[in-house]
Write a structure and sequence with these properties.
By secondary structure, this protein is mostly beta strands. The protein folds into 2 domains: 79 residues, no CATH class; 100 residues. It starts with a strand and ends with a strand.
């Protein structure tokens, strides 16, 4: 199934919750968010809700779009072009493709297999406790991409990180480590 959210109200009738709240139960389901100033959420209504979905794509480049997930989300692919979004994970995310906006990831149950970041800020507060607290196995930070890991004091690691010209990683070297770190040209590693 394909679900498309084309627009929402500016404010939700339920204070503190997104205007559109969904539950899904199929890894073949895709969710495209075109515009959601009042927010669109998956498994975010009750603490014990769960959802399984294949792909979530935040297509809006505007900063007023919001996507929120609860901690029970199992997802394969997350794509973002803009917005101010929160992604909580119950299991490993296969692919994070990030091309703008702000994204905050939370959850100690899941890491990310591959992440590519450009033109936005990723507040990476997640880790996979079952995989030696790995935030991501493979990370590429491109021009305009910022990865900020300072929001968590849990000892974590990136397995392989590549920072290209114009990319930035902010981290505390007492908390975050890299198995392999590559820099190409003028990249900023702030640790």
């Amino acid at each position: 199934a394909q679900v498309s959210v084309r627009n929402t109200a500016i404010n939700s009738a339920d204070t503190g919750r997104p205007c559109v709240r969904l539950l899904t139960n199929s890894a073949s389901t895709t969710l495209d968010i075109v515009s959601a100033p009042g927010g669109c959420g998956l498994c975010c209504d009750k603490p014990d809700e769960t959802s399984v979905i294949g792909t979530v794509s935040v297509l809006a480049e505007a900063s007023d779009t919001r996507f929120v997930s609860g901690p029970g989300l199992i997802i394969s692919i997350y794509r973002q072009r803009g917005g101010n979004n929160l992604l909580e994970l119950a299991d490993t995310l296969d692919s994070l493709d990030f091309y703008g906006g702000i994204l905050r990831t939370e959850g100690m149950a899941a890491g990310i297999f591959a992440a590519a970041i450009a033109n936005g800020i990723w507040y990476a507060n997640n880790a996979d406790a079952g995989a030696s607290y790995s935030v991501a196995l493979a990370l590429t930070v491109n021009q305009g991409g910022i990865v900020d890991t300072l929001g968590s004091t849990v000892s974590r690691k990136f397995t392989t990180a590549t920072v290209r010209p114009g990319g930035i990683i902010r981290y505390d070297s007492d908390v975050l480590s890299f198995t392999t770190l590559h820099t190409e040209g003028p990249a900023a590693i702030m640790g």
